[in-house]
Amino acid sequence: MNETINQLEGLLASGFEYVSQATELELSQKPSPEKWSKKEIMGHLLDSALNNLQRFTEIQVEEKPYKIRKYRQDEWVEANQYQASKIEEIVICWLALNRRIVTVMKNQTETTLSYQIVFNGNDYADLNFLMKDYVDHLEHHLTQLTQNG
Predict the structure, then answer these.
(1) pLDDT range class, residue 146, cuts 50, 70, 90
(2) Which residue from 13, 48, 49, 104 could staple onto 97, CB 3.0 to 4.6 Å apart?
(3) What is the dihedral sign for C-alpha 137, 124, 59, 80?
(4) Cα gap 19→122, rounded to integer Å
(5) Are 128 and 114 in contact (CB under 8 A)?
(6) Is 67 exposed, middle or buried (0-12, 13-18, 19+ CB in 10 A)?
(7) How big is the CA angle at 103 (ends 21 and 146), to the nearest 5 degrees?
(8) Taking every pair of C-alpha atoms in the chain, what is the biggest distance, in angstroms?
(9) Beta-bridge partner residues of 125
């Protein structure tokens, strides 16, 4: 888990640095009407952090296997109006949620990391997988931001 935590901490630093140096125009520009702007991608990452913090916390106390509830990503981005939001507000919240996730990750044991989760009723994994998958998802989207800039 230490490698995953280090990876997450590095991604938080590089994501913050990128957004801090980007212009409002660069962050707000949409590649096409149906695609997210970079600001909306950051909003999606905020939503992802919120949902995963809840998952990582709930699995500690809920019945196992823990059932993953999906959320409607496009609708969340629209409902939160990230395109019209200040990037500073999005980033501050994103960083705070992810710092809490780092704390939760640091408090896991071999036992808790093996807690079973179920996706879509028939695909099983464990908390360790879910935490690593979250960090990989974050890395994927941060790469999208920096490669398209």
Answers:
(1) confident
(2) 49
(3) positive
(4) 39
(5) yes
(6) middle
(7) 25
(8) 47
(9) 117
- Kindly report, residue by residue over 42-87, the tens digit of the pLDDT: 999 999 999 999 999 999 999 999 999 889 999 999 999 999 999 9
Which sequence spans correspond to the domains of the chain? 2-147
Token pair belonging to 106: 């640091």
Q: What's the rounded mean pLDDT across residues 21-25?
A: 93
CATH number of 2-147: 1.20.120.450
Containing 114, the helix (H) or strand (E) segment is none
Q: Which residues pair with 126 in a beta bridge?
A: 116
Structure tokens at 62: 């809920």
The two structure tokens encoding residue 102:
């780092």
